[in-house]
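Aim 2 progress. For Adaptor related protein complex 2 subunit alpha 2, the working sequence is reproduced below.
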Amino acid sequence: KSKEAEIKRINKELGYLFISVLVNSNTSRNPTFMGLALHCIANVGSREMAEAFAGEIPKILVAGDTMDSVKQSAALCLLRLYRTSPDLVPMGDWTSRVVHLLNDQHLGVVTAATSLITTLAQKNPDEFKTSVSLAVSRLSRIVTSASTDLQDYTYYFVPAPWLSVKLLRLLQCYPPPDPSARGRLTECLETILNKAQEPPKSKKVQHSNAKNAVLFEAISLIIHHDSEPNLLVRACNQLGQFLQHRETNLRYLALESMCTLASSEFSHEAVKTHIETVINALKTERDVSVRQRAVDLLYAMCDRSNAQQIVAEMLNYLETADYSIREEIVLKVAILAEKYAVDYTWYVDTILNLIRIAGDYVSEEVWYRVIQIVINRDDVQGYAAKTVFEALQAPACHENLVKVGGYILGEFGNLIAGDPRSSPLIQFNLLHSKFHLCSVPTRALLLSTYIKFVNLFPEIKTTIQDVLRSDSQLKNADVELQQRAVEYLRLSTIASTDILATVLEEMPPFPERESSILAKLKKKKGPNTVTDLEETKKERNSDMNGSTEATLVNASTASTPSPSADLLGLGAAPVTNSFPPPSSSGSLLVDVFSDTSANPASLAPGSEDNFARFVCKNNGVLFENQLLQIGLKSEFRQNLGRMFIFYGNKTSTQFLNFSPTLICHWTKVFTMFDPTVEGGAQVQQIVNIECISDFMEAPVLNIQFRYGGALQNVSVKLPITLNKFFQPTEMGSQDFFQRWKQLSSPQQEMQNIFKANHPLDTEITKAKIIGFGTALLEDVDPNPANFVGAGIIHTKSSQIGCLMRLEPNLQAQMYRLTLRTSKETVSRRLCELLSEQF
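Predicted structure tokens for this construct:
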């Protein structure tokens, strides 16, 4: 086996040597040999290949005497290596020269170079920003040329469609160009839209596919720039023609693109003109994916003027909708009904109709929300009580309707009790007739309604007590039902009228917070969907009709006038309008076990150094690059903490689908966030933290967003370390050394002798020890040059005492750090963290 391994190693080295000779040989510039070597490197595409040749291939690519075919192969080979090992491809002088390949006479070279530049520009936009004007110039020459001018690259009468698409995608990596290039680009896009109106030059499907590929990419660029009203409206009208096209794929793509157009203030009205066509597609389309896109577009184009029509059509479609999309439709109907309800009686009718049609798909978030709104609005409470009472009289009604009816009648049944048809006894009998058909949680809710009736309607107190006193309740096998029956019966028996009125008074208004229905829809659709994009834009630009999303955005976002403004906001008053999530819904909890964060980006360069600086401080800039700045302000007390994270957009362009995700296993994190960050603005995220038990690893903050059409991915360690949960403890010399001796077993002590990384300064050392979290104990150690400290780490499950002793050696410029705690893992972790500070 060892002999075979040796033979493989020798063969591998010979292969590398042979390829290296072909690539680097100045005596043989044979394009066949160089092409063979480059193809071999690209086909293997391993990290070893990148380490060996990533520095040489750019030289071949920009060399003046390189043949066109070799340049083409070199560009694609470098692209392959960059995708495999981006950290091994060095950015240098060649980057400014490779941009000029967009002007090359050979379109094959231009096509390969465009693919390379587009990929590189997504992570290094500033390095390749000069490519914008060159890409516009080349695109202009292509779209204005006749098909005979580019014979070798004309595909079924469409000149260079692949290169056109690649150039349009490259331009989506950047904001709109400067005025000199913008006019030319606008002309190009208008020409593409004009050509789409021309009669086809061929009946072959290849011709229409190539022509439409360029058209849809041009529309994507128009949507991305979102700055030319005329182009946006023209794009919308062009897509509207595709809505009735015989090709299913074109109809799907048209609906998908129009969803994004609906979020633009310039084209929203133009999209609305196609509402009847979209409704017809919802009713007649045979493909479920096209019907789903039609639902998405109706949701996106909805506003106050057409909300009732769209909601009615969605409810009609819901009765026959595919099971796979029913839950999503239910969520969208609930959101639209709440957002655009001018008359909240219509809202109540809509939600009850929703429960009637698709009760199995109405999640808890939906019926929680209708109860919150009814409780918060006095003008609709009587109507809601009357409507649910009538709905409950149906022979068969869904259990969710029983829940809503039980809750609303328990709070506001007195508002309809004056009508003999809905007297207190009739209300009680109606609800109790559903009792035996319901699940345990619903029965528990109904028992709470019954005790509320005792307070609202004393005349039926005896009837309710008889129910509570029955064996089926007092001896129920379910402990929750049994406990409620016993306690409610006792409460109704011994409590006076005044006490009952106080204990069972009407629920107070709920605090305004983000709709948990909207949060669930975003979680279901994912952070990078069109629906998410249009939702955030419309929330920002339109009146919310008193809905809670606007309140949330104002509470969690603070704009600054320029990128250079104070991103930390250290001089500003802290934001206090942060609302905790409702205890009844988990949809606002960050899912720390979610698959969406399974593959975060590797930690950003330099973030480890910044992380170490935060071990002994709580405020400052955690991360900064050319696009984004992340600042922190945090405070901790015992096992609880609160962290304010400030995200600053340093560019003049929006960040879209901005999605910060915390990856950890030991904290409880509550977060609410607006996924759009305006250019030159700052947004704030509040993270509440609870330390459950001692831990070793800090959580990772992964931020994903779209800038200039490209997905950006940044990961940094969040400085939540074990020492943050210290409470300093003062003690005298005798107590300190007595406790020190008690913690003398080898498992309890951790010691580290290390070289000082900074000059030994007494005041700085004291400040770092205090910043670490322990109390700095003066006059305790017999050697006055030594530093000692004491503290207790608080977790939810335990408290861990800690003693620290730091002995500096000025002559040797070294330290000896000794830590003793009752837990070995804690001693080790604290020793690691503190050693890095000196």
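Residues 298 and 666 are 42 Å apart (CA to CA). This observation will guide construct design in the next reporting period.
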